[in-house]
Design brief:
The complex is a heterodimer of chains A (about 280) and B (about 575). Chain A has about 280 residues and is mainly α. Chain A contains 15 helices and no strands. The chains are: A mainly alpha (about 280), B alpha/beta (about 575).
């Protein structure tokens, strides 16, 4: 009984709206509504997949997404482990506060800061100029886009992301450490043989869930950072859909691409889950 | 041609008039007394006999003679529908419109309902309305919500040509109704009818391809209102260089080089590449995107032209020489403003009010930072050779399709005639003055036949800015279903240099010849066009910046760029627009 409100919430607000996805197969017009708009079958999927930029968009989406995964996923784990090693009270709190802070800055402000840092004469640009960089605005160079995106993403999310690992760290039985110390294990060995295996299930669950976002690089941050000159490396599916679907009011097309992404993400989650069940016996289901 | 046309109009007017009188219909023509009508009726037989003569003596009736105004716009001059309207008691029309920032910035007017012009409008017409507004900044989203939510308001102001599926879809879905039976010589929108008779080119702009009227349009009533952005330079830097405002591309190279010598790090600054296009592309006889080739009725696409290539070559030359912003691709409005104020740049492209005017005011408030001599001077859109005419820069059609200010009556409106009379008022002689300037004696006085804002507007005792007060008393400096009068802008622009710039930026009616008129695409066409144009725009934007910065080489990669355009389907896009233009010309 007590779960009923939650169940109703999910049905009403999460599952029922999903029928709206049928507009991906229509030429949706808001005034006619979902039941009145004409059906067009797979036309929007075809037009998306036959565009000349489809290869580049998928490539860029995967590059940015996988780089974020490769570098952005371990970062909070490492931070959590490091914080776990800190003794005392005041200092860990200070570190936590400082690392959380960027998470609470709005994306628009954050990106404005990034742009400031890497423009010509910006702090970061100037820093690299000391090491032989030519000093031009970094967002004007296509090869620097992914690093800027990924590194700033770590800066922004590392503190917040570490919370879940810190929480699971607190549940480790202290006696394990004691036993290890008696066996002569140092800090490093303790981390390797006790801490990591203990939080491994959390890491795996987080990883599987993260796989569900591989095809979704949000348009917001990319749009705030990119420019026409670096489309080659920065234009991703969501930004292209934004320029096409929203600016030109092609709602059905946007829905079709969204559905396409979701299907791929779904497949990736299932795949990651199956893999993990085989290898580590930890899985979502 | 003109003579013949005039004769026809005169004949048509007479016939209409005669029919009116025979029918004895005085419903919407209350200006003339019944006495005048009967005396006019006595003359009917006489008039019939000379109905085809150009010198029609129509003074005894309510219809005005046609006038010629040298091809310029004829402002609203009729007063056919009688106000205040009888029998409007107990009806309150719901009116949905975007809220202009000048209104929301005034603490006394959270909505348009509190403004003076809304009161005048309701007093004069005897019809009461209630305004509701979308949240500023999310108009598009709230318009979307509005049209899916049950009952629509009676009157909606919007940019109707951008409606998904076009005006035809809007009508089929009941969001707008056709106004053909209202916009007639004796209908509830007779004054708009007269305005359209006086300005047949506007009549064509505001119809659908099938010839239906669907809105009370926002009309930019003068050439100086149709090009309010252009090139301007720091006059103090120009003086220091000992040069005149540049007129040709060669002059510009000279001036920008001189600015660089003075220490400017980005002699010409622009908020984006689009600004560079708007500023200089026209000199190479090309417009950005779709346009009409001058002297023809052929649609062309900018990036396919040799002129576009020449423009790119010129921009690349300037870029390499350090005459443009080296970070052009990451520039924005703030960069532009700071560069101009600090003298890192000496020239830019921007608007006469929001950029030129407000930056100047900012600089004047701190002369110790920005210099005593800080000033701006406008420059014409350049040409390639001395004496050339620029057909490809600036300009706009009178019917401002991009502005969310044209009013339509929805199918849910229970009193469409009343709504039509309410809106029609703004196209009558009195309503035109009221909506642009407010009330005589309160917000303006007539000085040499020109409405001139009073101190209540220009020197507001409560310290509110003149633009806020203009929007309190009228809508002249905003938008809406009326004919915008140039009188406001000449008073709003405080500096003579700003007003001069307006004159300079306008190449007369030349640029009009190359603009795509307000055509309409069918639902299928607009879907197809949207799919193609996203890819084309991506390619063009990307290649333009790469050619400009020299990352891509014009000599080796231009051909490849062209074949990619072909491959995406630029040909089909041209076909779609050509067909739409042909339909427009056939209206």
């Amino acid at each position: 009984m007590i779960i009923l409100p939650v169940l109703i919430y999910y049905i009403v607000f999460e599952y029922l709206p999903m029928y709206g996805v049928v507009i991906a197969f229509q030429n949706f017009s808001p005034r006619r509504g979902i039941w009145g708009s004409p059906w067009v079958g797979l036309q929007h999927f075809e037009s998306f997949l036959s565009g000349i930029y489809i290869g580049r968009l998928i490539r860029n989406t995967l590059r940015i997404s996988l780089s974020t995964l490769a570098f952005g996923f371990p970062a909070p784990i490492i931070l959590a482990l490091l914080m776990n090693e800190l003794r005392g009270k005041a200092f860990p709190r200070l570190v936590q506060t400082i690392t959380y802070m960027p998470h609470f800055i709005s994306m628009v402000v954050l990106c404005a800061m990034i742009r400031d840092f890497v423009q010509e004469g910006g702090v970061i640009t100037e820093f690299f100029t000391l090491f032989g960089y030519d000093g031009r605005g970094m967002l004007g160079k296509q090869d620097l886009f992914t690093p800027i995106y990924v590194i700033s993403g770590i800066w922004q999310g590392v503190g917040w992301g570490s919370i879940v690992y810190l929480a699971s760290l607190t549940s480790i039985d202290m006696e394990l450490y004691e036993a290890a110390r008696i066996d002569g294990a140092g800090r490093w060995k303790q981390t390797l043989h006790i801490t990591l295996p203990s939080i491994l299930p959390t890491i795996i669950i987080m990883f599987i869930m993260r796989m569900g976002n591989v095809m979704s690089v949000g348009h917001e941050k990319v749009m705030l950072l990119y420019n026409e000159g670096i489309y080659e490396k920065a234009d991703v599916i969501s930004t292209y859909v934004y320029r096409y679907g929203i600016e030109q009011q092609q709602y059905s097309f946007s829905a079709a691409v969204g559905l396409f992404n979701s299907v791929i993400n779904f497949v990736l989650v299932i795949f990651a889950n199956a893999l993990s069940r085989k290898v580590s016996e930890t899985s979502l289901w | 041609m003109k003579k013949l046309w005039k004769t026809w109009i005169a004949a048509l007017l007479s016939v209409c008039m005669v029919l009116t009188m025979l029918a004895g219909c005085g419903s919407a023509t209350g200006e003339s007394s019944s006495g005048a009508e009967s005396s006019a009726a006595e003359e009917t037989s006489k008039e019939e006999s000379k109905a085809d003569s150009e010198e029609e003596k129509g003074q005894t009736t309510q219809l005005l003679d046609p006038v010629e105004n040298d091809g310029n716009l004829v402002v609203p001059r009729s007063q056919y529908v009688s106000y205040p309207v009888e029998g409007a008691d107990g009806v309150t029309l719901k009116y949905w419109a975007s809220l202009h920032g000048n209104i929301s910035n005034n603490p006394d007017t959270p909505t348009a309902n509190e403004t003076a012009w809304a009161k005048y409008w309701q007093e004069d017409t005897g019809i009461s309305v209630e305004f509701t507004h979308p949240t500023s900044g999310s108009e598009d989203a709230e318009f979307g919500v509005l049209i899916v939510s049950g009952t629509l308001p009676d009157i909606i102001e919007w940019s109707w040509t951008s409606y998904t599926g076009g005006v035809v879809a809007a009508e089929q879905e009941g969001v707008v109704t056709y106004l053909d039976s209202y916009i007639t010589s004796e209908g509830p929108a007779a004054d708009l009818w007269q305005f359209l008779q006086d300005n047949p080119s506007i009549d064509r702009e505001i119809k659908t391809d099938e010839g239906h009227y669907y809105c009370f349009p926002f009309i930019r009533g003068d050439e100086i209102l149709q090009t309010t952005s252009g090139l301007f330079l720091r006059s103090d830097m120009l003086e220091e260089a000992g040069l005149e405002a540049p007129e040709t591309i060669g002059d510009w190279t000279e001036v920008l080089t001189a600015f660089k010598a003075q220490g400017a790090t980005k002699p010409f600054v622009s908020s984006n590449v689009a600004g560079l296009k708007a500023a200089f592309l026209g000199a190479f006889n090309v417009r950005n995107n779709m346009y009409v080739q001058q002297g023809t009725q052929t649609v062309a696409f900018g990036a396919q032209q040799e002129g576009y290539r020449d423009w790119l070559a010129q921009m690349n030359e300037w870029y390499e020489a350090g005459l443009l912003d080296p970070d052009i691709q990451t520039s924005d409005g703030t960069v532009q403003r700071n560069a101009i104020l600090m003298g890192e740049a000496g020239a830019t492209y921007g608007s006469g009010g929001g950029n030129m005017g407000s930056w100047w005011t900012a600089a004047e408030s701190e002369p110790e930072t920005y210099g005593e001599n800080f000033g701006f001077v406008g420059a014409k859109f350049p040409v390639l050779n001395d004496g050339d005419t620029n057909y490809y820069s600036g300009g706009q059609y009178e019917y401002a399709t991009g502005s969310k200010g044209s009013a339509a009556i929805s199918l849910d409106c229970q009193n469409p005639e009343l709504a039509a009379k309410f809106l029609n008022y703004l196209y009558s002689e009195k309503g035109h003055l009221m909506i642009n300037f407010g009330r005589e004696g309160e917000s303006y006085t007539m000085v040499d036949d020109e409405p001139t804002y009073t101190d209540a507007v220009m020197q507001n005792p409560d310290g509110l800015s003149s633009s806020v007060m203009m929007s309190y008393y009228g809508r002249g400096n905003a938008n809406g279903p009326f004919v915008q009068d140039p009188g406001y802008i000449l008073q709003y622009y405080a500096k003579q240099e700003q007003r001069d710039a307006l004159e300079l930026w306008s190449w007369g009616d030349n640029p009009r010849q190359t603009l795509i008129p307000p055509v309409s695409l069918t639902v299928e066409e607009s879907n197809e066009y949207a799919a193609l144009s996203t890819q084309v725009n991506t390619l063009v934007d990307e290649m333009t910046i790469q050619f400009l910065t020299g990352e891509a080489d014009l000599d080796t990669e231009w051909e490849n760029f062209q074949s990619q355009l072909e491959q995406i389907g630029i040909g089909r896009m041209l076909e779609i627009y050509q067909a739409a233009l042909d339909r427009y010309n056939a209206r």
